[in-house]
Amino acid sequence: MHELIEKIEELKKKRDAVILVHNYQLPEVQDIGDYVGDSLELARFSKNTQSKVIVFCGVHFMAETAKIFNPDKKVLMPDIHAGCPMANMIDPIRLIKEKEKHPEAGVITYINSTAEVKALSDICCTSANGVKVAKKMEKDEIIFVPDKYLGSYVARRVPEKKFYLYNGYCPTHMLFSREEILRLKGEFPDALVLAHPECRIEVQEIADEICSTSQMLTFARNNPAKRFIICTEIGLIHRLKKENPEKEFIPGNPNAICPNMKLNTLEKILWSLEDMKYEINVDEEVRIKALKAIERMMAI
Ligand code: 13P
Ligand code: SF4
């Protein structure tokens, strides 16, 4: 592994590349990242990077967001098959139908979506800023796509607005059940439950804190509790343990694995830098429209 890492470092310099890594990536991939973060942090970082090449270790919509910000840079994915099933649950035709059903409503689109869907939206949000975005939106009616659980989390915190939730969801976060979390709470009564807003509502209801992956890291660092039950993809536990060696992190479900996130490996990162593949491109007209929706979010 050491040799592989050395080769990656060498090629990274030669190509003037930066490696961006989502919090759900394999531990060894997180450890070689120039920057590791949640969707919002990675979007911000990609906007400001000076490197000519971005190797994005995450899923397709994340690399696409980096390309939307950086049309003149090469954005590479080590494995082109790393998609997000939730993002693929809505497409432009379905979104246009929703807009026709609710012509008065504005559209908030979770960043877990394709560039084409973003391009048809008023504004984007991530799991870290959905509530802020909805509060700031001028419209009283909001179509929220594609995640119904993040949408319902936001809607409960912005009761003055009417929400139309789309029926999308994350198959990985569906793997957390209220029964199992209650059982774990019984076994570890001193533990705090941290849940991602993509979890089912009945899981959110028994959580001590609902937040994005990076907000979980901040919460675990600053809270005096010594034990936490983590309801999000298990990749985050690597960083939680690394940053808080004296604390214990119990997975709410050890099988909550996003198979797409796990497609990226050190070997594939090396091949990506060797062959400059797989390049992400976005149609220019779509990119400009999608950029508007993302920039509105960034301005909040
Ligand atoms: P975060 O933005 O919280 O990292 O979430 C991204 C994601 O895909 C969650 O499943
Ligand atoms: Fe998509 Fe869920 Fe995987 Fe996140 S964990 S990338 S929402 S499938």
How are the secondary structure elements laid out?
Blueprint: H1 2-15, E1 17-22, H2 27-32, E2 35-37, H3 39-48, E3 53-57, H4 60-69, E4 74-76, H5 92-101, E5 106-110, H6 115-119, E6 123-125, H7 130-136, E7 141-145, H8 148-157, E8 162-165, H9 178-187, E9 192-195, H10 201-204, E10 209-210, H11 213-222, E11 227-231, H12 236-243, E12 248-251, H13 266-275, H14 284-298
Helix pairs in contact: 1-13, 3-4, 4-14, 11-12
Bound molecules: 1,3-dihydroxyacetonephosphate and iron/sulfur cluster.
1,3-dihydroxyacetonephosphate binds at residues 23, 38-39, 112, 126-127, 170, 198, 212-213.
Biggest sheet descriptor: 4 strands, parallel
Bound compounds: 1,3-dihydroxyacetonephosphate, iron/sulfur cluster
Q: Decide which structural class fits the backbone.
A: alpha/beta
* CATH superfamily annotation of the largest domain: NadA-like
Tell me the distance between the termini: 42 Å
In the CATH hierarchy, the architecture of the largest domain is 3-Layer(aba) Sandwich
Rg of Cα set:
19 Å
Structural domain count? 3
Numbering strands along the chain, what is their spatial order in the largest sheet? 2-1-3-4
Shape: globular
**Into which percentage range does the β-strand content fall?**
15-25%
Quaternary structure type: single chain
Mean pLDDT: 97
Kindly describe this structure.
The chain folds into three domains: 2-84 and 261-281, NadA-like (Rossmann fold); 87-169, NadA-like (Rossmann fold), CATH 3.40.50.10800; 173-251, NadA-like (Rossmann fold). It is α/β, with parallel strands linked by helices and 300 residues long. It has a four-stranded parallel beta sheet with strand order 2-1-3-4, with helices on both faces. A four-stranded parallel beta sheet has the order 6-5-7-8, with helices on both faces. It has a four-stranded parallel beta sheet with strand order 10-9-11-12, sandwiched between helices. The mean pLDDT is 97. Strand 5, helix 6 (115-119) and strand 6 form a beta-alpha-beta unit. The longest helix has 15 residues, at 284-298. It is built from 14 helices and twelve strands. It has helices spanning 2-15, 27-32, 39-48, 60-69, 92-101, 115-119, 130-136, 148-157, 178-187, 201-204, 213-222, 236-243, 266-275, 284-298; strands at residues 17-22, 35-37, 53-57, 74-76, 106-110, 123-125, 141-145, 162-165, 192-195, 209-210, 227-231, 248-251. The chain binds 1,3-dihydroxyacetonephosphate and iron/sulfur cluster (SF4). Iron/sulfur cluster binds at residues 59, 84-86, 112, 170-173, 198, 233, 258, 260-261. Iron/sulfur cluster binds next to loops.
